[in-house]
Amino acid sequence: LRGSKSFTAALPGETERNGHGLGYKSVSVGHLEAPPLSPSRLSLGRASSTATSTAAPEQGRPRDYLVLAIFSCFCPVWPINIVALVFSIMSRNSGQQGDTDGARRLGRMARLLSIVSIVLGTIIIVLYISLSVRGNHSF
């Protein structure tokens, strides 16, 4: 036997609706009538985090690594660091829209691409400097 999620409640103005003199109405748990919000509580923006995160505590805003991606743009590996910058901006946009999982995923990709860009850029710079110094020392 499964338990039902409905119950009977006395509501004002419902005394004659069910055909009995008793003021009871059968409603389900998901369809309870809630009082309207006061005008001071209405908002056109996102709901506050305290109202939306009742099950799990808020873990903070996901990192988008925008500063790291901008720093990687100074390395000479432009296709990779531009893609890292795009992923970082997409991560920031996803976080602002409330998609924390997508923001974390895009942020990790931006961090990875930024680090790869910085490492490859450092290798390219070191190789360029070492080859140019070696080329100037021809005896």
From TrEMBL:
Keyword annotations from UniProtKB, A to Z: Membrane, Transmembrane, Transmembrane helix
Ranges of biased composition (kind: Low complexity): 47-56
Pfam families, per the entry: CD225
GO CC terms, sorted: membrane
Primary location group: membrane
Localization of this protein: Membrane
Stretches that traverse the bilayer: 65-89, 110-131
Superkingdom of the organism of origin: Eukaryota
Location of region: Disordered: 1-21, 38-57
Family, per entry: Belongs to the CD225/Dispanin family.
PANTHER family: NG5 (PTHR14948), TRAFFICKING REGULATOR OF GLUT4 1 (PTHR14948:SF1)
Protein name: TUSC5 protein
Species this protein is from: Elachura formosa
Gene (UniProt): Tusc5
